[in-house]
Design goal:
CATH architecture of the largest domain: 2-Layer Sandwich
Helix content: 25-40%
Strand content: 15-25%
CATH superfamily of the largest domain: Bira Bifunctional Protein, Domain 2
CATH class of the largest domain: Alpha Beta
Number of strands: 12
Number of helices: 11
Structural class: alpha+beta
CATH topology of the largest domain: BirA Bifunctional Protein, domain 2
Strand order of the largest sheet: 1-5-6-12-11-10-7-9-8
Length: about 300
C-alpha cells in the first residue's frame, strides 16, 4: 500500500496552534532573558556550505547533516544540524571582536537521525555562547544562564551533571586512536571489566571506575589525586558560584559526550523525576580555529520544544 503523501517522515513533526504559540511565548521569554544579560542575538541561515558546517567543532556533525546541491555554485551545501558552528563562524569573521563576545540564537535545525530513540529530528535549538573568555567565571555564567533558562519553564527538581573533558583528554593522551575508542566506549558503558583491561596502558583509568555519583563524594574521592586535582578544583569552584535551588549535583569524570571537541568543564541539566536531558553544554576552546581565529569558548544548547513541554 502506497504511503499517503501527507504523512510526515519519521522524526519530523508539526506544531499546531496551541503548542506553536507556547513555543513562541517561550522563545520570547528566553531571548528577553539573554538580552538582559547582554547577549547579542544572531540569525544564521538554514543552509551553508557543507565544509563550513562540519569544520572544527562541527566535525562530529557530518553524519547528522542533510546535504543538498547548490544550483548556483554546484557545491555541496548542508542544512544545519546544530547552530554552534555557525556561531563560531560569526564570531571569527562576521564580528571579529577583540574582547569578549556573547551570542545567543534560537532557530530550527534538521538532523539526519534522531539523537535518541524518541527525540525529534527537527528541534528548535536555543543556545548561548561566550567567546574570548578563558576564565572559570565564563563557565559559571553559562551554566547559571542555562539553569535560569530551565527555570523559566519549570520549578521541578533538576539534576546538574558535571564532567571535565580536559581531564579525560589528558588521561587518554598516551593511547593510540584504537585504544582511545575502546576506552571511551568502556567509560560510556561503565564497563568495569573493559576498563580493567586497559589499566595496564593507563593505570589511572582505575580511578574513573568509581568517579561518578553525588558531586561532593566524587570530588572527595579523587580530588586528592594529583592528576585529578585541577579538574576537581575547577568543578568545585564553578559549583560554589552558582545560585540555584531544588538542584541535585552529580559528577561523572568519565563523561565522554563531546570528547572530540570539548576541552574543559562539561555539563548536562536533567529533569530529575522524568530522567530527561534538558540542556547540554561545556567549554570548547579554539572552537573558531578552523575559521582562522582560535578563541576560548563555552556555551550551551537546548531544544525549546522540550522546555515548553515541561509544563504538560
Amino acid at each position: 500500500m502506497a504511503r499517503p503523501s501527507w504523512i510526515l517522515p519519521d522524526g519530523l513533526e508539526e506544531c499546531l496552534p496551541d503548542e506553536a504559540w507556547a513555543i513562541e511565548d517561550g522563545r520570547r521569554l528566553c531571548l528577553d532573558l539573554y538580552r538582559q544579560k547582554n547577549f547579542g542575538l544572531i540569525m544564521p541561515p538554514m543552509l551553508e556550505y557543507f565544509d563550513s558546517l562540519t569544520s572544527g567543532v562541527g566535525h562530529d556533525l557530518a553524519d547528522q547533516t542533510m546535504v543538498v546541491t547548490d544550483r548556483l555554485s554546484g557545491q555541496l551545501m548542508g542544512i544545519r544540524a546544530d547552530m554552534t558552528p555557525q556561531a563560531a563562524r560569526i564570531d571569527a569573521h562576521s564580528l571579529n571582536e577583540s574582547g569578549i563576545t556573547r551570542l545567543c540564537y534560537c532557530g530550527s535545525v534538521l538532523r539526519a537521525m534522531p539523537l535518541s530513540g524518541d527525540s525529534s529530528r527537527s528541534p528548535v535549538q536555543l543556545g548561548a555562547e561566550v567567546f574570548g573568555e578563558p576564565g572559570l567565571h565564563a563557565d559559571a555564567e553559562v551554566i547559571q544562564l542555562a539553569l535560569d533558562t530551565v527555570r523559566l519553564f519549570t520549578d521541578e527538581p533538576l539534576l546538574v551533571d558535571f564532567g571535565h573533558a580536559g581531564l579525560l583528554k589528558e588521561l587518554l593522551a598516551s593511547l593510540g586512536p584504537e585504544l582511545q575508542l575502546k576506552a571511551l566506549d568502556a567509560l560510556a558503558r561503565k564497563d568495569v571489566d573493559a576498563i580493567d583491561g586497559l589499566e595496564a596502558a593507563v593505570p589511572k583509568l582505575a580511578l574513573l571506575k568509581g568517579a561518578y555519583g553525588e558531586l561532593k563524594s566524587v570530588l572527595e574521592l579523587v580530588g586528592c589525586e594529583q592528576s585529578f586535582a585541577s579538574a576537581c578544583d575547577d568543578i568545585r569552584s564553578v559549583r560554589e558560584s552558582l545560585d540555584a535551588e531544588s538542584m541535585f549535583w552529580y559528577c561523572d569524570l568519565g563523561e565522554t559526550h563531546g570528547y572530540n571537541y570539548h576541552t574543559g568543564i562539561v555539563f548536562g541539566v536533567y529533569a530529575l523525576e522524568r530522567d530527561q536531558l534538558l540542556v547540554r553544554g561545556g567549554r570548547y576552546d579554539h572552537v573558531g580555529e578552523s575559521f582562522g581565529r582560535a578563541r576560548a569558548a563555552t556555551g550551551f544548547s537546548a531544544d525549546l520544544k522540550t522546555l515548553v513541554r515541561l509544563a504538560n
